[in-house]
């Protein structure tokens, strides 16, 4: 029978992220492999963190607003990248605007290329130290991946998809998201790359 | 020869904490055992987090000021305590004032009883859900531990020790501390219970 109660549910984890977020970089680079090894599927949930920060009265990242925390974060990032074996260069522009790549990632969230696209964008920001909210940069990433860049950009820039990113960001706020990365496994929320393994363990054990 | 350059330096970690800090609770309960298993000695560094928050323009904990983050933190604490096998009750009063137990912990920071005293105070706050900034409560903890409570309280409440806690808090700020728990291994700073194991590994490898 199809659709009966005994049908196993897929083990999934929602990964809410913004390309401007440095801790989302750590997760983006490692989540697919970590999830796959536990039989968990990643649901990519790009959203805009800036409007959520604005609801707290913040015009930019707390890592910019709080000087001591900001200075610490760059040391922490260097150590974390070393721990995970990831390349790292502190961005000269932080937090970088990311609305265009977020629109592309949202438009392609269910496509097979989304994970690699996200890794490429993150690497462009946090390793190559290049701005990512640029049509040329994003087209170049899509081209390198052998994808139909003009078609993907047109879909990303459609009114429907622009509205979808606004709705995604409102959904993030409604879910209680206050930073990135954030994970959901069912109704359980986990904040921060430091909680990825706990969230994956829960997703893996939560086998429907 | 005593004091020559070949004398091995002790492997140490500085543990900066406030009894009102819930993530400091997690660390307080597990640091001594974790450090000891790696041959690392804990240097207890009680300080007042409130005056540091005030320098950011915050009148209380960010877990109170940011509603979404606050709601998340209590779920995270319940999961973290389960992970570490620690008892937990969400405090009905948060963040609790803690100046008296901090004065006692600072006055006794080099005494053999400091670790157990700190665990008792944290348990009183985060398991028994009792206020800890009370002479009766602190005296009772010291008495239960078989310590000369009146003598310890008198030392804690001396002008010299009160001033020492103010200086300790200023030192925390000068070191760039912006939250608790924070660890120092030499000049390397680590923030958060999530970084305790990394800090201990570094302390352990840093064998002078």
UniProtKB/TrEMBL annotation, chains A, B:
InterPro entries: DSBA-like_thioredoxin_dom (IPR001853), GST_Kappa/NadH (IPR051924), HCCAis_GSTk (IPR014440), NahD-like (IPR044087), Thioredoxin-like_sf (IPR036249). It catalyses: 2-hydroxychromene-2-carboxylate = (3E)-4-(2-hydroxyphenyl)-2-oxobut-3-enoate. Signal peptide: none annotated. One of its GO terms (molecular function) is glutathione transferase activity. The keyword Ribosomal protein does not apply. One of its GO terms (biological process) is naphthalene catabolic process. Residues 12-199 form the DSBA-like thioredoxin domain. The active site is at 21 (nucleophile). Keywords: Isomerase. Its EC number is 5.99.1.4. Belongs to the GST superfamily. NadH family. This is 2-hydroxychromene-2-carboxylate isomerase. It comes from Stenotrophobium rhamnosiphilum.
């Amino acid at each position: 029978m199809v659709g009966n109660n005994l049908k196993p549910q897929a083990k999934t984890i929602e990964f809410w992220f913004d390309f401007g977020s440095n801790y989302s970089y750590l997760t983006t680079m490692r989540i697919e492999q970590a999830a796959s090894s536990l039989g968990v599927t990643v649901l990519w949930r790009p959203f805009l963190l800036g409007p959520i920060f604005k609801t707290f009265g913040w015009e930019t990242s707390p890592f910019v607003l709080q000087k001591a925390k900001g200075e610490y974060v760059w040391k922490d990032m260097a150590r974390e990248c070393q721990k995970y074996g990831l390349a790292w260069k502190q961005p000269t522009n932080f937090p970088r605007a990311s609305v265009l790549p977020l629109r592309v990632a949202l438009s392609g969230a269910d496509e097979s290329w989304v994970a690699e696209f996200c890794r490429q964008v993150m690497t462009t920001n946090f390793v190559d130290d290049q701005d990512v909210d640029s049509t040329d940069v994003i087209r170049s990433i899509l081209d390198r991946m052998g994808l139909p860049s003009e078609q993907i950009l047109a879909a990303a820039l459609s009114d429907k998809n622009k509205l979808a990113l606004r709705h995604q960001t409102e959904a993030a706020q409604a879910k209680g998201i206050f930073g990135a990365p954030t994970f959901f496994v069912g109704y359980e929320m986990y904040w921060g790359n430091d909680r990825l393994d706990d969230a994956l363990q829960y997703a893996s054990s939560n086998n429907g």
